């Protein structure tokens, strides 16, 4: 539990250490992405509806669609993968990735001098 707290605090420190982007451009980008997604859905509405109906019909009539993963891989088998060594390896991987990301962000950030 303590390792998770340390890992999350490292991740939070990296996120907070990054330079703050312009808020208005981020909002503009998010809005333009949302508008583009809505335009795509409206322009392809017929295809989306037909795909959803055909998928639901196939699943309803064949019974082939199932969200039960217990048939494929039992949960009891998954618990054997959760060992202290695997948790330590995952923690080390995450910590090194966060450190590499922070170093890259620090190197690429160059403030504009007016």
From TrEMBL:
Signal peptide start-end: 1-17
Transmembrane segments: 33-59
Top-level taxon of the source organism: Eukaryota
UniProt keyword terms in alphabetical order: Membrane, Signal, Transmembrane, Transmembrane helix
Protein name as it appears in the record: Uncharacterized protein
Species assigned in the record: Diatraea saccharalis
Lineage: Eukaryota, Metazoa, Ecdysozoa, Arthropoda, Hexapoda
